[in-house]
Amino acid sequence: MEKIYEYLPEEFVTFFLVTLFSLLIGLSQRQIALKSGGGPMPFGTDRTFTFIGISGYLLYLIDPVRLYAFIAGFVCLCALLGINYYIKASAYKHFGLTSVSIAVITYSLAPIVCTQPSWFYITVVVVVLTFTEMKHTFTELVQRMNNDEFVTLAKFLAISGIILPMLPNGRIMEGVSLTPYTIWLTTVIVSGISYLSYLLKRYVFRDSGVFLSGLIGGMYSSTATITVLARKCRKAAAEDMPEYVSAMLAAVGMMNVRFLLLIFIFSRELFMSAYPYLLVSAVVTSGVSWFLHKKWNRKEKDGGMVRADEEKNPLEFKVAIIFAFLFVLFTLLTHFTLKYIGAGGLDFLSFLSGLSDITPFILNLLETGIDDGVVMCCILQAITSNVFVNMCYAYFFSGRRKDLRKGLFAGFGITIVLNLVMSIFIRLV
Helix, strand, or coil here: 176? Predict the structure, then answer.
């Protein structure tokens, strides 16, 4: 955008931009006025906001250093807005300040456009236009929230923005790359990714179908998602079983994607070695899942929906504490295994880790400094063990349904065999 100044006068470009942005904001207010249906009208419409923006620009140009004229115009505008707000509040008992706030922002566009880079003032306009249209969306969102949702979010902000910066970065134990800061940083990153996936599932795809529930749920917890789906399929029709198996496999496939993302964050070097194998595992698992999903070509019933209310918030404080504990535990187990048994002992530990959350174990492998091939084998073995455990969960929590058994064992078996074959291939190479 700044390159335009090389061909056109700067004053012309800035005047045009201020006028255009003010008009767009005014048009959005006009749309709200048309939708008001006889209710209290917002302050001004398209021409009003356009002239507010132009006035701010002209008064800014008069004295761009001391800003006396611009400040005087701002005071006059605030007086008019105050009178308008008082009359509207008295007549309609409407106390909203949205249109008043937007008018102030529109008046302030001139100095922003003149002094700030293009990406910033365009972002301001985009945010104003977007939030103007999202009143009903925010209302519906708040209505969907649990009573403790904001409390949970506040806890996350506390552990990431208050506790994390205060923690020391000194090693807890000699020879172990473990510090209070790294423990909590890992917890915050993993919890943040899980929480983002949870929010998508709960508030964006709230009434999603079975397959989409598994796809999104796998990003924050494949085990929890598979358990919910298994319990749900107890009362489902026999012909719906392929769809539930496909959703469970989708959760496993997305688990591989989640680990790819975490490895990329914590170890770019290992990521270059790990991504072909995890990507192949994710693609094959997702391919089998999609095949079963397409095979199930009957329209879903209401019973095929998985409500977000059944999903547990992964950002509860106790969950973060448990993850931090597991992270420390597997750090110490990995350290002493390497010290007294050697890299061979990691094979047993990798399969053992699959009985619980394998994320702490995999993240610790990234810090060991051992050969990338050994680390990749252990990661695939841990995933294999965890997939086997999830398959058992799915079978038992579904009530050991016979019509689920064939597809479940076949689908999960393909993933388990594939991971073991890739692990053997890495050792041979």
Answer: strand
Q: Quick check: helix, strand or coil at residue 371?
A: coil
Task: Show the DSSP H helices in 207-353 as ranges.
Answer: 210-217, 222-232, 241-266, 268-295, 317-340, 345-353
Provide φ and ψ at 176, rounded to 5°.
-115, 125
Tell me how far apart the terminal alpha carbons of the chain are, to the nearest angstrom.
52
Rounded average pLDDT over 207-213: 71
d(CA 308, CA 270): 35
- When the pLDDT of each residue in the chain is averaged and rounded to a whole number, the result is 81
Single out the residue of 7, 4, 392, 59 nearest to residue 226, CA to CA: 392
Other Cβ atoms less than 10 A from the Cβ of 40: the count is 17
Distance CA 267, CA 183 (A): 16
d(CA 191, CA 183): 12
Distance, in Å, from the CA atom of 273 to the CA atom of 258, rounded to the nearest integer, reads 16
pLDDT at 378 over 50: yes
* Matching residue, tokens 């965890």: 386
Mean pLDDT value across residues 21-30: 87
Q: List phi, psi (to 5°) of 279.
A: -70, -40
pLDDT of residue 68 exceeding 90: yes
In sequence order, the β-bridge partners of residue 176 are: 173
Dihedral (CA of 260, 262, 265, 266) sign: negative
Q: For residue 324, name the pLDDT band (cuts at 50, 70, 90).
A: confident
The token pair that represents 238 in the structure block: 């026999």
Phi-psi region for residue 170, left (φ > 0), alpha (ψ -120 to 50) or beta? beta
The dihedrals phi and psi of 209, each to the nearest 5 degrees, come to: -70, 175
Secondary structure (3-state) at 416: helix
CA-CA distance, 164 to 395, in Å (whole number)?
Answer: 40
Q: What pLDDT is attached to residue 30?
A: 76
* Residue 246 half-sphere exposure toward CB, CA atoms < 13 A: 21
pTM attached to this predicted model: 0.64
Task: Report the candidate in 363, 67, 17, 407 with the shortest Cα–Cα distance to residue 189.
Answer: 363
pLDDT for 159 beyond 80: no
Checking if the pLDDT of 247 tops 80, the result is yes
